[in-house]
Amino acid sequence: MNLKLLISIAKSLLVARFRQTMIAAIGVTFSITMFITLLSFMAGLNDMLDGLIVNRTPHIRLFNEIKPNEVQPVLISEQYKGHYNFIHSIKSESSRQDIYNSAAVMTALKEDERVFGISPKINAQVFYNDGIVDITGVLNGIDAQAEKKLFHFGDYVTSGSALDIKNISNSIILGKALAEKLHANIGDMIQVITIKGDRFPLKLVGLYESGLRDFDKTQGFASINTTQKILGKANNYITDIQVKLNDISKAPSIAKEYTAKFGTEAEDIQTANSQFETGSFIRTLISYAVGITLLIVAGFGIYNILNMMIYEKMDTIAILKATGFAGRDVKTIFLLIALSIGIAGGFLGLLLGFGLSSVIDQVPFKTAALPTIKTYPVQYNPKFYLIGAVFSIITTYMAGLFPARKASKIDPVIIIRGK
Amino acid sequence: MNTTILEARHINKYFHDPVTVKVLNDINFVIKKEEFISVIGKSGCGKSTLLYILSTMDTDFEGELLIDNETMGNKKEKELAQVRNKKIGFIFQFHYLLNEFTVLRNVMLPGLKLGSHSEKEVEERAMQKLTMLDIQHLAKKNAKQLSGGEKQRVAIARALINDPDIIMGDEPTGNLDKKNREIVFDIFKRLAYEYHQTLLIVTHDQELTGISSRTIEMEDGRIIRQ
Fold first, then answer.
1. Which of A151, A173, A199, A260 sits at 20 to 30 Å (Cα–Cα) from A192?
2. ipTM score here?
3. Domain locations along chain A
4. Looking at the partner chain, which of B90, B93, B95 has a beta carbon nearest the beta carbon of A315?
5. pTM over 0.80
6. CA nearest B192: which of B209, B213, B173?
7. B99 to chain A: closest CA residue
C-alpha cells in the first residue's frame, strides 16, 4: 500500500518535470546504445582477427622438434646412477624430421572421436628462383582437400583453384606477394631449388593471400606427392600432422596425451598463439572501459537532474514530511524516479544498440587482406545486453542514491519557516 | 471532556547560529481536548518555533513533549512521522498544496500514507471533508489552478483527513485577504464548536483571539499570559 502510494507520487513528480527527465533518460539511452554497439563491434572484430589465426591454425600440431635428446647416455649408465651429472655443450641429435610411422599415427588419430579431422603436411625450406636471384621460402606440401575442409584453404586462394595443385601434376600455388616478386603469372613455370641443390620446374596454378603480406612473401603450396618428389623422399615422408578437434578448449590436455602416445612434439593452439588471446583480451578490456565510462557520465547527468529536482521540490518534500511522510519514504520516491529513468532509458538503449549494430553489420567492408569479409563484423552476444541492462540500473541507482539521501534529510522546518 | 491532548513540560530551545541565543524559556502548558487555543505575540517572540517543536518536526530542544500522553523525546524519525500523520493536522502560511496533484489527491495523500482505509474509502472521506468546507466542486481541479483562499481551504481539508487529535496552524490567515480570512475564521469556528476539533493556531491576528476559547500570549520566549 505504502509502496504503491510512493510510486504514484514518484510518477507525478516525473510527469511534472517530463522534459528534464526525458533528457536524463536520453543520456542513459545514448550511453547504453554506444555500449552495446561498441562491444558488439569490438567482439566481432576480435572474432574476425582470431579467425585469421584460428581458422587456419591446427588445434594441435604433431611434429618432431630438433632438440637435444632428453635422455643422454650418461643417465642410462649403471655406473653413474645416483650421481648428479653435469653435461656441457649438448648438441641436438641428428634425428629425422619426419614423423616416425606417420601412417599408423594418422590412422589412430582418425579413430579418436574427439578429433574433427586431420591434415598431413610437409614443411620444406626451398629457394624460389628468379633469374639470378634466389628467394628463400617455404614449400608446404599439403593435402588440398583436407586443408580446404579443415582450414578454409580455398578461401585464401584468390586466383585459380585450391584443388588444382592436386589435380594438375607438378603444380604450385604461391603467395601473391611472392609471385609478384618473381614476376610470375598463373600458367608460368616456377623454378624451385631444394637445399640440396636440386632444381624443379613447377607450374603456377593459383595465388594465395592470407592477409599477412610478409607471410605471403615466403609461402608456396604444392601437393604432398609433388613435395615428396622434390625432396627426394619416400611417400610416407610427413613432417607435420595437423589436427582439428571438436572442442578447441581441450587442445592443451589432448596435446599432452599425444606427446606421450606418439612420441612426437604436440603443440596446442593456445600455447602457439597466446599473444592473440592477450590482444583480444586487451581490446575487450578497452571497449568495456569506454562503455562503462559512458554509463558513468550518464550517471552524473542523472545525478545533476535529480539534484536540481530536489532543489525545485523542496516545498513538496517539506509538505510531504510535515503531513507524515518519513525520510525513508522521501528517499524511496527519489530512488524510484532515478530507477525509472534508468530502466526506461536503458531498455530503449538496448533496442537502439541492437538496431545500430545491425546497421553496422550491413555496411560493406572490403579489404584485400581479408577476402572472406564482406561487411563490418558484428557479434550479437546476449551477454553484452545483460551487462548493459545491469549497469544501467546500477549506475542510475547510484546516481539517485545521493540526491535521494539528501532529500530524505531535508528539514521541513527550515523550508516552511524560510519564506 | 478534560482529556489532555498535548502537554509541554519545561521546554527550552536555543539557536546556535551565529551565537547561542535562548529562544524559548521554560515553556509549560497543557492543551485539553476540544480547546481552541490561539498563540499570539510579537514577531520573533518564539511562537512559531514553539509550534514546530509541538508539531514534532523540530526535535532539537530541551524538555518534554507529550502528545496523547505519550512522550516524544525518545521516538525515532519514522515514528515521529507517524505521529504527525495520524495525530496532527498542519496548516501553513505559504505552503499549501502539492502542485503536481489534483485537489482531491492532495487531500487524500496523508490518508493514503496512514493506510488504515482503502483508497476508495479515503477518497470518500476526502470528498466529505471538501463538502464540509464547501469546496467539493474543486475536487478534480489541479492544485495550481486554485486561488490562495481556495488553496488554504483545501489545506484545511487535508489537515482533517485522518481525524487528527489536534490541528496546528502557523499564521494560517497571514497571507489571505479580508474575505478569505473571514471564511477561514468561520471554518475554524465551525471546527471548534460544531465538530469539537482541538485547534492550536499561532497568529498575529487579534480577531482570532476573539473567537478562540483560550489565548496564550508570548514575549521574548516566555509565556506571559495563558
1. A151
2. 0.87
3. 2-54+276-418, 60-82+93-271
4. B95
5. no
6. B213
7. A316
